[in-house]
Write a sequence for this structure.
């Protein structure tokens, strides 16, 4: 433990240097309420690292998931703190699978806030990794392992922030609910079953914090903190064309392949309408300050910029921003004949369609059919979109995150990037809970891209210490 402690301390002082704002800009953190026991932050960081390493050692690759083992590990940590935990839903989810639920009580004067993470991870191929993906090894100032970033590391930070609040005796107006779900990475059945079968456990939950948004760190420099208010929704389609099989040496008009290709081409080249949602509008306005003119003016009023051809071309050239502003359509899978000289009876394509937070699936489907403009092309929905998801830009959660972030870096700002991917948030939002994504870490964008669903996923020890204190403050300020 001594080398770990030493690297932690070294990590913290490096961090302090790297982030040191101008002293005059530093705001004074709120004084701790009377009766609150002080927290030994370096010791808590070390404890969090140890517990996280144990969690990463449990292989919860989905499939099969094996979340029950992860849930039992969390239950053990919670019960050592005198927090009762329930292992749930194995019967509904299948052998070896589970959700976990626990709660610490506030005084009940305000509604509860939930911390939600998923216990499962995507599989890892050990041969591509520097250290075995389920070793929980600490090396070079990092804790390595599948799930360190997505999102078992975040889950342990949630757990330890909650435990720290209980230990320190901070007065709570809101209960804090801790939930770990199975199967986020594949079918989302964990969250779906939990919300469906245990409405009584979340009836009083007003707000929820979970993945996935990224504080923007580039080349080791933090640009801004992030709050996720909204996300895109998957609406995958399969296009099928029937034809008449025959020999490739004597082509006929009933070959389904060219007909399908024409339909796919029309979809792929169609310019879907541009729409500016509230979180995206704020995001562009907030980041405008980090650009020079004319981009600064364009971003500060993105609606107007989209009417200007030069500004629009510049904005849409960024594939992330392009996806923020419209339905995206990406043809990916193609199937026709498996022999060059055989015209097949059927050809099909799969298309990754992603709709904006507020879109209606029927009108999007009608648009796709209009674009294809061929009744021989049959559409099948492979994945129905989850519930619409855009949380208010103004709320106690947003204010708490802003306060905690700006205390750390008063020279920066907090903003609301859209998530182009998908999480379990809509499942909870549909149950009447306002959900937000928060990122407890400051991980370089390049590091995140490498590790999340990739190889050598890892989290730095200084980030673990940062994360648990950041989330502790957010939970304290949201009271
Ligand atoms: Zn995730």
């Amino acid at each position: 433990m001594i080398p770990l402690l030493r690297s932690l301390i070294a990590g913290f002082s490096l961090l302090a240097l790297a982030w040191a704002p101008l002293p005059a800009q530093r705001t004074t953190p709120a004084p701790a309420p009377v009766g609150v026991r002080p927290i030994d932050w370096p010791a808590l960081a070390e404890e969090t690292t140890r517990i996280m390493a144990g969690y990463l050692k449990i292989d919860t690759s989905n499939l099969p998931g094996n979340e029950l083992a992860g849930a039992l590990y969390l239950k053990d940590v919670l019960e050592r703190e005198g927090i009762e935990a329930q292992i749930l839903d194995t019967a509904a989810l299948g052998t070896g699978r589970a959700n976990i639920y626990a709660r610490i009580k506030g005084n009940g004067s305000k509604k509860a806030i939930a911390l939600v993470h998923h216990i499962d991870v995507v599989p890892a191929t050990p041969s591509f990794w520097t250290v075995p993906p389920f070793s929980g090894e600490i090396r070079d100032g990092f804790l390595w392992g599948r799930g360190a970033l997505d999102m078992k590391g975040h889950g342990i930070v949630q757990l330890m922030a909650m435990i720290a609040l209980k230990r320190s005796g901070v007065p709570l107006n809101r209960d804090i609910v801790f939930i770990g779900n199975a199967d986020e990475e594949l079918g989302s059945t964990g969250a779906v079953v939990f919300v469906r079968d245990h409405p009584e456990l979340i009836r009083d939950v007003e707000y929820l914090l979970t993945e996935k948004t990224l504080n923007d760190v580039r080349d080791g420099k933090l640009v801004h903190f992030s709050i996720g208010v909204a996300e895109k929704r998957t609406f995958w389609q399969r296009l099928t064309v029937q034809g008449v099989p025959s020999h490739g040496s004597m082509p006929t008009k009933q070959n389904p392949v060219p007909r399908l290709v024409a339909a796919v081409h029309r979809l792929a080249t169609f310019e879907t309408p541009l729409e500016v949602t509230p979180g995206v509008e704020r995001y562009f306005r907030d980041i405008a300050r980090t650009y020079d003119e004319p981009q600064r003016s364009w971003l500060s009023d993105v609606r107007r910029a989209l009417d200007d051809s030069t500004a629009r071309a510049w904005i849409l050239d960024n594939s992330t921003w392009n996806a923020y502003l419209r339905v995206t359509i990406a043809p990916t899978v193609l199937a026709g004949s498996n022999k060059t000289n055989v015209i097949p009876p059927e050809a099909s394509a799969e298309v990754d369609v992603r709709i904006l937070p507020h879109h209606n699936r029927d009108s999007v489907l009608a648009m796709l059919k209009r674009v294809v403009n061929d009744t021989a092309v049959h559409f099948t929905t492979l994945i129905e979109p989850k519930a619409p998801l855009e949380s208010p830009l103004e709320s106690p959660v947003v204010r708490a995150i802003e306060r905690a972030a700006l205390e750390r870096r008063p020279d920066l700002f907090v903003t609301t990037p859209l998530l182009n991917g998908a999480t379990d948030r809509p499942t909870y939002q549909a149950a009447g809970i306002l959900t937000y994504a928060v990122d407890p870490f400051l991980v370089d964008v390049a590091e995140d891209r490498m590790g999340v669903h990739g190889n050598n996923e890892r989290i730095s020890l200084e980030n673990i210490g940062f994360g648990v204190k950041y989330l502790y403050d957010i939970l304290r300020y949201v009271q």
Summary: The two ends are 35 Å apart (CA to CA).
